Amino acid sequence: MKRLATLALALLLLGAIGTIKPVKAQETLTVYSYTSITPWMKQIIPIFEKEYGVKVNLVTVGDAGEVLNRLILEKDNPQADVVVGIDNSYLQKAIQAGILEPYKPSDVNVIPKWIIDDFDPTFHLTPYDYGAIAIVYKKDELKNPPKTFEDLTKPEWKGKLIVEDPRTSSTGMAFFLWTIGAYGNKWLDYWAKLRENKVIVVKSWDAGWEMWDKNQAPLFVSYATDPAYDACEDKNVPPKIGAVFLNGTAYVQIEGAGIIKGAKHPELAKKFIDFLISKEAQERLPTTQWMYPVNKYVKPPACFNYALNVTNPVKLSPGEIGQNYKKWLEQWTALMVEGKSPEEITGTSTTTTTSTSSTSTTSSGGGGICGPALIVALAALPLLLRKRR
Fold it and tell me: How far lies 360's CA from each of 183, 352, 372, 388, in Å?
């Protein structure tokens, strides 16, 4: 009887085990972005993870241009589900690369129509913040900053301006497009003047801020909200950081997030895009991204009153950027890295001029990373209290 009881108990236990449902493995959403987005993501990712019972794997890769280049390299075997941080400067490159799956968020009406129209009405990318590029300086060290693009080419500003490389930085690309908006097809001549004036070109916004913060140059291409950052974070009222728009104009940068074509978790990716424009996520954006939220029901803090007010934005259509960005960047590289003249690049120089220019380029180290312009190959240094591209 004891044996029968034991056998019966064993069979009963086996039956019970057979009815237990296997535990579903926790889903992991992989998000690609640039390094300095970390402060915002640290605040909002735990909220998303708790709400949906998932894990978010945030992979940061230097600056926005580097993120996009990595996604293009991985196109045939995508590793990411979502990309966050592609702006209007890189938008057309991303669309043309065929790496994005269009998705219109369920609560898209929280975004003002002008932002959608100016950014991407096709919703390959959904906008989540915006801001304007400016030249920043320290008020206690610089009493009379430059006011125009031409001012930056004058001898008194030689070697004193830090700009980001448009090939790897969305901030740098925005400044580059700002100059094209100001000079049209004469932009090469303007950049040639900057080169002669020893403009400092760095890989990323982080690297540029590090140099500027250490007083290695007094002028830096950054954001119109930097004075607001100084007032909010460093409690400097009035702010010690000043900012100027050149020629009384501004270039507005809009950043977006999108779903990667071939994503392993497309439905979860859609929920993440929806979440990024929610009030819960957007309320945490101004004082971590130092940009403006796109959700019209979210207002930035009072210190944003110290940011420059954009009244005269320079606009380049996404179509124009899409048709020309590759050529423009090739020409910029020829000028700033290879040391060629505008005439050589456009094919309008004579044989004599070309020969002289080529000799000058060789003697000054053209063709390498340092060329006639000072291009500083600094690694992206994550500054976790600041956010930029």
Answer: 26, 12, 9, 36
